[in-house]
Every structure is written in C-alpha cells, then in structure tokens.
Hints:
By secondary structure, chain A is α+β, with helices and mostly antiparallel strands. Helix content of chain A is 60%, strand content 11%. Chain A has 2 domains: 74 residues, Phosphorylase Kinase, domain 1 (2-Layer Sandwich); 176 residues, CATH 1.20.1300.20. In chain A, strands 1-2-6-5-3-4 form a 6-stranded mixed β-sheet, sandwiched between helices. Classes of the chains: A alpha+beta, B alpha+beta. Chain A: Keywords: Hydrolase, Protease, Thiol protease, Ubl conjugation pathway.
Amino acid sequence: MSQNDEEKKEEVKEEKKEEIEEKKFDLTDENDFLMSSSINEMEMIREEIGKSQPLVSDPKPLEHLLKEFNDHSNYRRQIETLITNKQHSAYRQLRADGNCFYRAFLLGLFETVEATKNEQILETVTKNVVTSNDRLVKFGYEQFALSEFYESFMDELALYQSILSSDDSSGVNIAESTAVQKLSDESHVELFVLCRSLNEAKVFFNLKKQSNYLIFWARMLTSLQMQENEKHFSQFVQGKTFREFLQTDVEAVHAEADHPQFCALSMAIEVPVRVFCLENVETGGPQVVTIPENGQPLFDLLYRPGHYDILYRKS
Amino acid sequence: MSTPSKRRLVRDFRRLETDPPHGITAAPLQDDIMQWEAIIFGPDDSAWEGGTFKLTLSFTQDYPNKAPTVKFVTKMFHPNIYADGSICLDILQHNWSPIYDIAAILTSIQSLLTDPNPNSPANVEAAKLYQENRREYERRVQQVVEESWDHDNDSDKETDDDASDSGENESKTSEKKDKTKEQEKDKDKEKEKEKEEKEKEKAKEDQNQQSETMQSSVSKD
Lengths: 315, 221
C-alpha cells in the first residue's frame, strides 16, 4: 500500500514537473516544421513515394490489379482467377512504405469490426492487448518509451467498443470514417468534411501520427508474441541473433513483415486472416493460406512478393 | 501546446537525469526542447579515453516515430563518422525504432567509437587505417582526443590556430580537463553505488523478477 501511495505522489509530482517543463518549451512550435537538414536517402525515396501514392487508396475493382501487372503473365493469370472466382468485389491498395502489412492488418481488422458489429472480436483483441504493455516491460522494455503507443492502441479499441455498445447507427458511420482516416493519408479537404465534432477534428489533425502509433504497437505486439514463443520463432531467424532479428525485422519502423511476423501478430491478438498469394509461378495459384491454419478467417489480404493489400469479400 | 514528441522528450530527459548512462551527459537547449546538446566521454581503456566529444541532436515533431538527426560537433576521426560530423549508424537510419530513447542512442554511439564498422565507411581514410595500420589509426584518434579538450574549453568558435599557438594554455586546459574528468568519475562512482544499493533492495523485494534491461541489450549489440 505504502508503495502505491508513494507512486501516486511521484506521479503527481511528475505531472506538475512535466507541465512546468512543457510551458518552458512552448515557444518553439514554429521551429517544429523545419525539417532536419540531412535527411537520409531512404527517407527521400519514401517521401517521393508518398507524394505519388496515398497511404490507403479507395477500394478499386479487381480489374485494376491487371494494370499493375501488364507484362507479367504469371501474375495476370492468377488475378484473372481471382476475378472469375467472384469471391471478392474490390481491393484497397496500400503504400509500400514497409508498413503495408501492419496497416493492412489493422485496417482490415477495424473495418471488419465495423461491418460485422461483432463485439466478440473486439473483446478478444482487447483482452490480448490490455496486458501487452506490462508483458513487454517484463522483457526489459522501458515503460516510458512504450506508454504513448500502448495508450493510442487502447484508445482506439475503446472508441470502437463505445461505438458498438451504443445502438446509434450514425455512430457506426463515424467509426467507419475514422478507421479509414486514421490509417489513410491526410487528404485534408475530404477529411474535414468528415470531421463532424471537435473530437474528430482532433483526430483529423493527428492522422498520420495516429496511424504511426497504432502501427508501431502492432509491431510491438508481434515482437512480444515472438519473444514469448522464442523457441518456435527463432527457427525462422538466420544470420543474426534472435534479439537482432527483433530489432531489425520487427521493431524498426520501416521493417517489412514476412510470414513469421504475420503469424505472430495473428496469434498475438487471436485474429485469423486469409491471404491470397500472387506468386511468380507458371501454373495454378493464387495460393490461399489461412493464418493460423485452423482459424476462421475474419478478413482477406492480398499478397504479392514484398507487399500486402486488402481484399474485400462479396457480401 | 503539448505534443506527443515533446511529452516524450521530457520523459527522455527525466530518464537521463534519474539514470544517466556512464560517460554521457545530454540536455535540451534552454529555450528549445527539440534541440539537444550532448557530450560523450571517450570509453576508458581505449584510444578514445580522455576525449570529450560534443554532439547535437535535432528532433522533429515526428519523434519518436522518426530518428533525430545526430551530429558530432567535435572534429572526429572514425570510420563511420563523416567529415561534417554525421554518423553512419543503423539505428539512426534504417533500423530506427521508437523504443530507442536518447540514452540508448548515445550509448550506441559511444560503443560505436570503440567498435567501428569498417565495411560501411563514412571516412575512407579512417576505415583503411583501422584495418591496415591500427597503430597509426590510434595515433590519429589520440590527436582528435587531444583536440577535443581545446575545442571543449573554447567558449565557442575560436580557430584551431589559436589553440595550437598557445602551448601553455594547452597544458592548462588539459589539467583542467583532467580535473573535471575526475569529478565526473567520482560522480559516476557515487551514482553506481547508489544504483547498486537500489538494486540490492530490489533483489530483496523480489528475487525472481529480474530481466535484462532494454538498455543493456542495446549496448551489447
């Protein structure tokens, strides 16, 4: 008990200190927009891509996929199979910035929650996420470096919880726009129209940042799952230590995800997903994989080497 | 207005104050928390020993989602440090992660000093000497170490000529430097003692709960 009290006192103290310190630094806002002078090359390439491609596109008919693979008959054949199977109505293209898997996974998840209004999904995810911060701290991570990301993710889950538990159907509409906004680009005018309340205006101003926070927590959930099942996941690691693998291939902000990361995240929050894999093979395909194998997939993703997009099932 | 990046920087600062890594000091400029200055002391038992190397860290609103720009102000001679002071270090570039705080960044740079990666050279001459003529490499490093005392004591930007002209001054400054270094060491010792005591208490409270800290794993790698 006494320890608790002390902690509380410490918290109050810290808050006050923080307030004071923040006031002290208040004058600097205009400097914040100055970019650092030496942006490294990768950063420049990413920004170039950013200009030409939004983080999240509008849903497009599958026929558009064919255009992306004009000279690749192996891929075109598989896309045509997708079209003739008539299981899917559209796909949503995501920016190839190293975050596409995590962005696709989260957007797919939140959109599914909205569409199905299935509280069970949300409860399961929340149950797994709520303990994640403490579990990471046990692995030696610094609480202060994690909290902002963890809280963003929990806030997001709470937002959907509140929307699902109110019967107001307009609430669901708001949710729908929020998911796409948060994980999509900051195309200001359209989004401004969607911002119906002050609260949402706030969201709007934080868009790209918001999605970065959610995506980074998805990375940490992935890393945590791998560390808690090190024996299983370390078999996928080659040429570096397990710790190095986590640092360079999971927790680094632009690290692309591969099959092990996919499995880990899917297991971490108990969200089974089906993936349609376009591969450069002469016959057959697309290969369909459900992760984890025996799960009932909640939504579908489209994979091509090095990239993930979202596939929408026909309702 | 408080922003996530500023909130985080305040937390980074607090962490540095309560648990300062060995041989590192860092603080924001008085009127701008987005701009920091840091000093890394050359690791003991290395050619870098005794050096005081000044750096600047410049943060944007995207911190911690984006790495700060970190540069040495002190002239350096190192395979992975460019002529303008920029540093070639994976966690500052493609392997950046928001779990790294300022302490972790500076600790990594500190260990880069003694553990360079000559395969991705930013200073070709330094990389070549490091691989082919270690003795000459270390002589050049020690030169930089000695220069770092002058630079550090100069109020701001006096020319190198000034410093080397006054031989007397030089010995004085190095004496002074040694003193401040000793003080720094004493401080460190005290802190370590405190730390040890704290850790003992902790261990008593809960013997089972002990895990590697993030920081130690970062510095090891």
